[in-house]
Amino acid sequence: MNQVSSSVSLKAPLLNEGEVDATRLVKKSRRNRAGVISQLFFAWVYGTIEIASKVTLENDMIEDLRFEDTSEQLYYRFMKQFEKRKNEKNGLIWSLISVSMGQCIFVFIVMLFNVGTSLINPLLIKWTIQYLMKEDKETQEGLILIFSIIGVRIISVICQQHSFYQIRTVGYDWMGILSMALLGKSMNVSYQSNKEHTSGQVLNYMQVDAMKLQWFGWYMSQIMLMPLQIGISIYMMFKFIGVAFLGGLGVILLTAIFNIFVGKKMMEYQIMMMKDKDKRTNCANEIFQQIKFIKVNAYEEYFRSKLTKLRNQEIKTLKTRFFASCLNILSVWLSPMLILNATFVIYVAIGNNLTPANTFAIISLFQSLQGPLLFLPMALNALIEANISFKRVQGFLLTKELMNDCITNSSQSQLDLQYQKGLTVNDSRTQINSQVMRTEIDDDVAIKIDQGTFYWSQYKEQPQQPAKAPTAKGQKVEPLPQIESDPILKNINLRIEKGQFVAIVGDVGSGKSSLIQAMLGEMIYKEDKPRIQINGSFAYVSQKAWIQNATVKENILFGLPFDQTKYDEAIKFSCLKEDIKILVKGDQTMIGEKGVNLSGGQKARVSLARAIYSNCDIYLLDDPISAVDVHVGKFIIYECLNGYLKDKTRILVTHALNYCQYTDYVYLMDNGTIAEQGTFADIKQSEQFKKVYQKFYKDVKNDEESQEQINDVEQLPVSELKLEKKQSSQKETPTAPQNKDEIDELMLLEDRNKGTISFEILATYIRLTGGVLFASFMVFMMLLWDGCYVGSSLWMAHWTQQASEDLANGVDTNNYFYLTIYSVLSLSYGILAFLRSWALVIVSCNQANNMHNKMVSCLMYAPQCQFFERVPLGRIMNRLTKDQNVLDSELQWTFNWMLVQVFLLLANTFLNIYTSSPWVAIPMVIYFFLCWKIQRVYMAASRELFRLEAISKSPILSYFSESIMGITTIRAFQRQSQIMNKHGNNQDLNRKIFLEQIAANAWFGLVLGLSSFMVNTTAIVFCMFYSTKNPAYAGLLMTYASTLDQNINGTVQCLGHVENGLISFERCVAYTKVKPEKGYEAAVKRYQNNQTYRDQYIPQWPKNGIIEYKNYSVQYREGLPLALKNMSIVINPREKIGIVGRTGAGKSTITLTILRILEGLNGQLLIDGHDISTISLRQLRESITMIMQDPTLFSGTIRDNIDPLNLRTDEEVLQAINKCCLTELIESRKGLESNINDHGDNLSAGEKQLVCIARAVLKKSPIVLIDEATANIDIDTEHKIQDTIQNAFSDCTVITIAHRINTILHCDKILVLDKGEVKEFGYTKDLLNQTNSLFYGIYQEALKEQSH
Questions:
Q1: Which domains does the chain have, with CATH numbers?
Q2: What SS3 class is residue 1021?
Q3: What b/e sequence results for 430-452 when a residue is b if at least 16 CB atoms lie within 10 Å of its CB, and e otherwise?
Q4: What value does the CA radius of gyration of the chain take, rounded to a whole number of Å?
Q5: Reported pTM
Q6: Which residue of 336, 384, 835, 849 has the lowest C-beta tally within 10 Å?
Q7: Residue 1244: φ, ψ to 5°
Q8: Higher pLDDT, 439 or 578
Q9: Tens digit of pLDDT for each residue in 200-210?
């Protein structure tokens, strides 16, 4: 097959390296302006810390990044490197390293100094003990030793903090680069034709995998330096004790082999865990994207159980993965003790006696080794995770891109667009060359396709293999052979002249939308390369409108400069003028995520306005007319497409065949081919077109019995026909400005607590993590662990002292007795560490799982309008991914390490006091108090920085997700650079907060480290000049005094890390307190306690389907106008009601009230005599069938989507499929097991709607609500579906909302709404006979339109 040479070129929209936005330019940051001393001690960040101690930090109080440090510039440099290295095995890693090479080298050098200081300590201890054992001590020599020890510690502290700060900076830069790279790559990947990576997986790559890479450099540098540190340590051991070091070396080798084995297992489990995490994240993302569908069908319990099962599998894998980590911890705590034991066994066996100088020098040496070895499991764990994440991300970055090398385009129009974005000519030409071939095209042609055969995938879906007996070990399982897929579009040849208005018509699944996608380069080809010639720029209006979470104006401008005249014209010709007038903030009103606060028609018209404003050459319109009212559709055809845009090339996909008469040329699609083409006058002579065209009028003609004179009646004035619009199905703001209360804003601000973590949060964490009983158990385990630690240390001091005395007295020491006791204590020390860690893993995983289930239970039953339409999906997913990941994988290890630090501090404090004097406790208490005071000042800044960082993270994910959903629209408008710039800005806001956070952390660590010298100096001076006569105790004091300040520092640092980790816990807890819908309170409470819940159902209700509104009013939110006002109507059993009204009149609100998506403000709504507010919410929604305007499908099989609860037999499902004209679809695939991709991307819009209708036919409830169900279906199929709906629901009460008048003419009664009020309600024929009725006017307008 012909592969695209640039399929892995990563030619995302290039970001400008030379042009600089002056408003964002920061030449030097505060860190760069600081002097040498300020930079050395991180004094430059104290300004932020001081501000945080006085007021609550906000984003604008933190200085912006330098221009060269912005995400855009880092990404630009990364792109250059990755282009060179993309074919290398670890090309991604080396490309990232190359971007930060200077910082990486600096870190490596600094860490070398740090390793050197840790290896000098044992020598200093040995020299100090030797000095103490001298009879004649020189004060000068003692002072030199004291200042040497202090000097080494100062260098060590400074090196530690600078290396940590730089490597964290590099890591976060890498994370930002990869986030940009993932979005940049997405700009060149079609998620419809590329099946290797789903959009949900890419979100996981950005949110989980890229985040894991921020620590890669730190752990890698530690691993790289470990061999050097171990090698020098072994050499020093040899110098201290000779060949006895071989015992320790043997244990080190055995430990290394054990760790390699465990590491392999960790990698296997990590891969499994990431796959499980992907499944759970994809499922959660899909659920909360389609939450409205889930709610109206009462599927919450089904999807909650589905997500819970995936989560349970993830937790099971997580525990297995962490068991391997605990084995690593066992190795780390046990191996130093085993090394010491093996070394001492051989040392004693060859006839040597232990001396305090050599013994405590070796212990100190192993203490310096213990740090890296203790760090080893975390480092191996992180590197394994990072390696897997690198492979996943690199796999996506190298995946196949758009196969658009078959497209040729004129260069000039593309360059003009790039100039508008501020790119240089060279950069623009580079981008264009990577995407299209620049050749000359006939000036008269807008689009030309020759020999166009296109596919959505390379291979057919593989059927599931039947279960077989397990194969023998090592036996190779042959994969099923891949079968070439069938073409979607076959031998397409078309030529569209510049300025032509072309219609593309055909049945559902005939290939109309696919033809548009092929023009945009979204589809793939195989051996026979088609040829597509494009002459001009595209404006694209998708079938399902893509709306950004921004203002109305920003959605229309879509990044272009504001031009008042063009803007006014775009508003006028998209019929948005009245909609904007009614908004309090006009076109500055925020549109919710995915346009949740707009009706389907309004979203389509905003999308059209965006296209009009773009002033492009070619307009691709994928059936936007189906979503709007008849009079609006007529205006768009007459005034917009045939008026304002008459000089543009317009390609309209439509099912409204009557509009074909206004076009210059018509293409009739059938089964992926162009069946007929020509002018409307020519094509309407064909039998195939006639057959479909005649059916368009069938329903209308059936109702014309008493309306023969209607064509002679003059059309009513528009002012009489026009029903005022409100701001949507929903959620409008008051018509008159009130106070600027937050309630007027659609999107809720993200919750942010301030100040310290509350005691309630800490108590909740302890309660969920085993409670007081488990906390007591952990304290008991730690006391045992401390006892073994202290006991082994004192026993070693006693042993060496006794050996020295025995040697002086010429008596043999019973070394094996001492060694046995020491071995028991030291080995118990390691085993207890393993048991403690494993116990904490078990309860922490259970706690994290419980928290996840509590969040999901609350979110699943949260109210649609008050919560889901006001909270972005990215914010929800941020809690379920990033914050949940902290609970899953980070917080437990942070608590574990905090316990170690606290109890090591207690143990070392005891050893210091016991081996010297109680007076040593005085500087320790002073230092600890100082640490606590500094920590309070630091935490005031750290907490708020952590919260700001977490909050600034949500817009990154939301915008990333939003951009992925609209990727085709973005590419069509050539707005890749704009999207990348915005994403970069979101990243930079987050990065500047994070970099300030780690700088504050480095300052804190440095201050603590330097102030710790009061403890070091006191202990060392006491040891030198006021020491006990026991040299072993002096050695013990020296050994542990050198680490005491590190223990205090580590304890205070860990307390800060735990507090920051608890912020994620706090954020998750907030989502366990989301108020559920009325009627679900008891269910949520029981689900949160892992209990089952069963509703009390009314037997055999509803039976008749009588719906009665009694003076019923409703509003979407407090402070908004009434959406329905004092409605009083009665719908009798089995009546068919059609609801009409202009966009936003309240039609969809009717369905929301019946389903209790909206709760009544006053009055009553009765169904079969029961007030629905007193009925089980689940029973209510289960008893009603809803066919929504936007088709909703989930990844899975067709059967799963038609019968989600698996309540029906295959025969019943097939009957529903046959009734809904889907038989041909499933026969051409794999039957009921045919796979459906995320959001049904492998089906046409009409096919998706048919699947949804089949689902409703199968459910068949006493009450059926249909909201624009056939908007995306061709007339032929619509006619069949209408017959099916009438027959299948003949004994049901049916309420239908439709834009096309013929879909409701069969109804018994018509309800006309205007601004939430009932204007007319009566029998259809009666209203048609009343020439002054509103419905008569609407019908007249539609009929006149069809007669043209």
A1: 44-399+754-1070 (1.20.1560.10), 499-522+537-737 (3.40.50.300)
A2: helix
A3: ebbebbbeeeebeeebbbbbeeb
A4: 36
A5: 0.68
A6: 835
A7: -75, 165
A8: 578
A9: 788 878 877 88
